[in-house]
Amino acid sequence: MKRQIPGLHLNQRGVENKLEGLFLVRVDRASYRWHPQKPFVELRFVILEPKSFESRLFSGRLYCTERALWKLNSFLRDFGYNAQLLKDDQVDEKALRNLRGVVRTSCTTLSRRSYQNLDAFAPEADWEALECTSLAPSDGQGGSDGL
Fold this sequence. Notes:
The chain is α+β, with helices and mostly antiparallel strands. It has a single domain, classed as CATH 2.40.50. It is built from four helices and five strands; from the N terminus they run E-E-E-H-H-H-E-E-H. Strands 3-2-1-4-5 form a five-stranded antiparallel β-sheet. The longest helix has 10 residues. The protein is globular. The chain starts with 20 loop residues before the first strand and ends in a 12-residue tail after the last helix. About 5% of the residues have low confidence.
């Protein structure tokens, strides 16, 4: 018996399924993962825009080490996380669900495994302006570190 499984061919080796660029996203799931050297928050996002990527999912990690806390803090502030919980140094996995914002992603491959990097964040309200600037032609000069 044969079964039709849509999208099966997309997971073959050599088929690139990388998401790189700016996306308006919603947090679908979040979970804290303890690790002796590098604890992290694992996030699963649903893409809302651009429309060509709508409803696609991707995951990323935000590390909770002392050196990486600035990035987790930036994510929480830009995505509108509860200010009181942030002030109390608390991350509530349930409070993270359905938060919306802009994320810039890139991909890295290490030891033949592909990882989704969460490079930068911005509030959802900035999506329109950021989308327009990302579509503008480059002037050939270096960019900035922010979105």
